[in-house]
């Protein structure tokens, strides 16, 4: 970069300290002695402006007799960038005299000796400059620099336009949140504040990114202007040696500017905002853990489909149940936030702080329940005394840290499906995380929104359904994928084992709608093949889901 002062006066006048000078250019040599004098010439080698006296005597000392001087009419309006001068940047006091055609590089005597001693295609700068002054290389470099400047201007305009679009979409998304809030109760107010805080963090990140891009563009623009001015100085002074050397160096800086611009283009990915309300909030105010979702999209690719996290809970309200013994059944009621223990005509009810979603038996009279809204698993114990009013007791809370839904107990461990991030978490009974399964051996994500999980003991296989993809993943307890069943149904809901046929049946919604059109799939354990059976109505779905209970 060029010096910023360029020998211009800002503090003294008439050679006396302490007075403001009106000189356009000052003598750099006199400034070192505290004096201010009008510059009457310029030394290309020292890059100093010189007054009349210094100009006359500058080349008298032996070390500077070879220096080249420009008179008042020829001296440049600004100093040349050090990187573009004839002085070698690697070896102080050495001048660039040679050009290596093999490496397209200039250098001093030491450079040629140390780095190009084996090169055969070397000539002097003077020889190359004679050839260069009649070529189009300088003109082509000016064209490249001008083109880069136009691209930087365009980048700035695009960045500002994107920011305006992003700000507008963000305000529209926030407005949608506020409008949706009017239909909800006080609980949604706290959730709203949480969402706005998150979205503001994303938007602040976007603003910071845009501000940084503007800084980078302005810096690159300044560098470009300096390079253009340097080359124009040489061109106007007909200093073709320096012009060639400068052009040679500028070529590399041009490449660096191009790389910086490409980096800015890659980083200039600004997201737009959209808001999709959570349909579950309309009827289920007590069990939600978010107001909805703020989506961000690439402004350049707005055709990205928006997938709402909450739109696939169409089985909401279906009661989950498991047999506790030959005579008793546990039923989860997500709507009423409670657990029912049914034995004959006797019913015990345990009220929970939020809606339970799934459960699994771990030992006799002990079972684990997922509470998605609270992001935890609760270990429950059932007393043998049916007259005990507190027969169902919460023994332990295991915090999962993410929304947890499906759960199964397998070989002394608990496996639970989690969302945000999507994974299957393997836990010990004391709550310690043993393993987090989220991707295959190649690093590819296994799930988008895992829902339910089942375990087939005979084949030591876990089955995990996914709400977003409608797929079922069969894997070992260690997370090794055995088979992937893709797009088997819209929402796989329940797994049922047929111990006599050693098959697994999967029931779920056949279509993504609210007509409750169910179907059942049969997975053969011996071959891994999957077969689609007839569709089911709601009653048949409940009966098939209760197959383990009916067999008891």
Coarse shape: elongated
| Number of separate structural domains | 3
Fourth-tier CATH superfamily name of the largest domain: TolB, C-terminal domain
Overall mean pLDDT score? 77
Termini Cα gap: 85 Å
Low-pLDDT windows of residues: 1-6, 8-20, 546-552
Helix content: 25-40%
Question: Which structural category fits the helices and strands?
Answer: alpha+beta
By CATH reckoning, the class of the largest domain would read: Mainly Beta
Count of strand segments:
28
User: How many helical stretches?
Assistant: 10
Rg, please? 38 Å
The fraction of residues assigned to DSSP E strands is 25-35%
Describe the structure.
With 552 residues, the protein is an alpha+beta fold. It has three domains: 1-79, no CATH class; 137-298; 320-551, 6 Propeller (Neuraminidase). It is 30% helix and 28% strand. It has ten helices and 28 strands. It has helices at residues 28-31, 52-57, 109-115, 125-132, 137-181, 186-237, 240-267, 280-283, 538-545, 547-551; strands at 41-43, 48-50, 69-71, 98-100, 105-107, 122-124, 271-277, 292-298, 320-323, 328-333, 338-343, 346-351, 359-363, 366-371, 376-382, 392-399, 403-410, 413-419, 423-427, 433-437, 450-456, 461-466, 472-475, 481-485, 491-498, 503-509, 518-524, 530-536. It has a four-stranded antiparallel beta sheet with strand order 9-10-11-12, with no helix packed on it. A four-stranded antiparallel beta sheet has the order 13-14-15-16, with no helix packed on it. β14 (366-371) and β15 form a beta hairpin. α4 crosses α7, α5 runs antiparallel to α6 (186-237) and α6 (186-237) runs antiparallel to α7. The protein is elongated, with a radius of gyration of 38 Å. The model is unreliable at 1-6, 8-20 and 546-552 (pLDDT under 50).
């Amino acid at each position: 970069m060029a010096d910023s002062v360029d020998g211009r006066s800002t503090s003294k006048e008439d050679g006396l300290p302490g007075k403001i000078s009106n000189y356009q250019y000052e003598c750099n040599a006199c400034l070192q002695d505290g004096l201010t004098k009008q510059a009457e010439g310029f030394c290309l080698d020292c890059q100093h402006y010189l007054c009349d006296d210094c100009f006359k005597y500058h080349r008298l000392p032996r070390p500077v007799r070879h220096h080249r001087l420009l008179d008042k009419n020829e001296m440049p309006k600004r100093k040349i960038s050090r990187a573009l001068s004839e002085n070698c940047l690697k070896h102080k006091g050495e001048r660039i005299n040679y050009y290596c055609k093999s490496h397209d590089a200039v250098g001093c005597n030491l450079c040629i000796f140390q780095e190009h001693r084996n090169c055969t295609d070397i000539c002097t700068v003077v020889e190359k400059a004679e050839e260069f002054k009649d070529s189009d290389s300088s003109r082509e470099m000016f064209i490249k620099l001008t083109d880069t400047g136009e691209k930087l201007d365009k980048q700035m305009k695009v960045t500002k336009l994107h920011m305006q679009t992003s700000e507008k979409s963000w305000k529209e998304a926030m407005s949608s949140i506020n409008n949706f809030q009017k239909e909800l109760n006080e609980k949604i107010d706290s959730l709203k504040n949480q969402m706005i805080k998150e979205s503001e963090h994303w938007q602040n990140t976007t603003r910071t990114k845009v501000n940084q891009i503007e800084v980078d563009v302005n810096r690159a623009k300044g560098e470009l202007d300096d390079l253009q001015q340097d080359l124009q100085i040489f061109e106007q002074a007909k200093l073709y040696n320096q012009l060639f050397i400068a052009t040679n160096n500028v070529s590399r800086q041009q490449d660096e500017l191009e790389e910086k611009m490409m980096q800015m283009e890659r980083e200039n990915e600004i997201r737009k905002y959209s808001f999709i309300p959570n349909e579950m909030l309309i009827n289920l105010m007590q069990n939600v853990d978010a107001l909805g979702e703020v989506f961000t999209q690439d402004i350049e690719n707005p055709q990205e489909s928006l997938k709402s996290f909450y739109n696939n809970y169409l089985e909401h309200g279906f009661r989950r149940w498991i047999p506790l013994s030959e005579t008793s059944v546990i039923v989860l009621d997500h709507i009423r936030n409670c657990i029912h223990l049914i034995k004959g005509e006797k019913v015990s009810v345990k009220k929970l702080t939020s809606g339970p979603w799934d459960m699994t038996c771990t030992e006799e009279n002990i079972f684990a329940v997922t509470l998605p809204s609270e992001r935890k698993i609760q270990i429950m114990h059932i007393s043998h005394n049916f007259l005990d009013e507190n027969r169902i007791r919460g023994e332990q809370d295991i915090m999962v840290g993410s929304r947890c839904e499906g759960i199964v107990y397998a070989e002394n461990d608990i496996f639970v499906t989690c969302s945000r991030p999507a994974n299957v978490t393997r836990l010990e009974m004391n709550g310690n995380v043993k393993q987090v399964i989220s991707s295959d051996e190649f690093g590819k994500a296994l799930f988008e929104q895992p829902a339910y999980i089942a375990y087939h003991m005979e084949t030591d296989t876990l089955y995990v359904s996914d709400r977003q993809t409608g797929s079922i993943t069969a894997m070992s307890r260690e997370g090794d994928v055995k088979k992937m069943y893709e797009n088997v149904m819209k929402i796989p809901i329940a797994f049922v084992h047929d111990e006599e046929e050693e098959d697994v049946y999967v029931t779920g919604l056949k279509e993504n709608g609210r007509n409750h059109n169910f179907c059942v799939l049969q997975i053969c354990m011996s071959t891994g093949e999957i077969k689609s059976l007839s569709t089911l109505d709601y009653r048949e779905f409940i009966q098939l889901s209760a197959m383990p209970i009916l067999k008891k």
